[in-house]
C-alpha cells in the first residue's frame, strides 16, 4: 500500500473572518485484527493480518453561490476597514493645502496709495 496524505487525512477549512466552513473532510477506516487461535481448529489455515472492514469518507465543499456571496461580504469588509485611512489621508492633504495657501497669502503684500489707506470719513 502507498497511502497519500491528501486522500486520507481529516481536515476542516474555515474562513477566519466569517467562521464559515469552506471545505471539510472526515475520513476513517475500521480494521479487524485476524489471527490464528489454537483453541479453535477452524482458524487453522488463517494467517495473521489486519483486514479492512469499512472505509468512511464524508466530504463537503462550499457551492458557487455561497462562495460568491462570501467574496462579496469579504470585499465589503475590506472596503469598510479602509474608509478611515482614506478619510485621514484626505484630511492630511487638505491640511497641507490650507497651510500652503495661508503661507502664500501672508507673503503677498498689497500695494496701495496713501488715499486708499486713509479713513473714509475725515473729521478735520
Characterize the structure shown.
With 124 residues, the protein is of the alpha+beta class. It is built from three helices and three strands, in the order αβββαα. The termini are far apart.
Descriptive labels:
single chain; 124 residues; alpha+beta; three-stranded antiparallel beta sheet; 42% helix; rod-shaped
Please give a quick description of this structure.
The chain has 124 residues and is α+β, with helices and mostly antiparallel strands.
The percentage helix is 40-55%
- Series of H and E elements: HEEEHH
Q: What is the count of DSSP helices, taking H or I runs of 4+ residues? A: 3
Distance between the termini: 119 Å
On the 0-100 scale, what is the average pLDDT?
Answer: 85
**Order of neighbouring strands in the sheet with most strands:** 1-2-3
- Quaternary structure classification: single chain
Instruction: Give the uncertain stretches in residue-range form.
Output: none
Q: What is the CA-atom radius of gyration, in angstroms?
A: 40 Å
What's the overall geometry?
rod-shaped
SSE topology:
Blueprint: H1 5-8, E1 11-14, E2 21-34, E3 49-61, H2 64-107, H3 114-117
Antiparallel strand pairs: 1-2, 2-3
Amino acid at each position: 500500500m502507498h497511502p497519500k496524505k491528501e486522500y486520507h487525512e481529516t481536515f476542516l477549512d474555515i474562513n477566519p473572518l466569517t467562521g464559515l466552513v469552506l471545505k471539510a473532510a472526515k475520513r476513517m477506516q475500521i480494521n479487524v485484527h485476524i489471527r490464528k487461535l489454537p483453541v479453535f481448529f477452524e482458524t487453522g489455515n488463517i494467517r495473521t493480518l489486519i483486514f479492512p472492514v469499512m472505509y468512511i469518507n464524508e466530504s463537503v465543499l462550499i457551492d458557487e453561490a455561497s462562495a460568491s456571496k462570501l467574496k462579496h461580504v469579504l470585499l465589503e469588509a475590506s472596503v469598510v476597514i479602509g474608509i478611515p485611512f482614506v478619510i485621514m489621508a484626505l484630511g492630511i492633504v487638505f491640511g497641507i493645502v490650507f497651510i500652503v495657501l495661508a503661507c502664500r497669502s501672508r507673503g503677498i503684500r498689497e500695494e496701495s496709495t496713501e488715499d486708499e489707506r486713509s479713513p473714509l470719513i475725515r473729521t478735520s
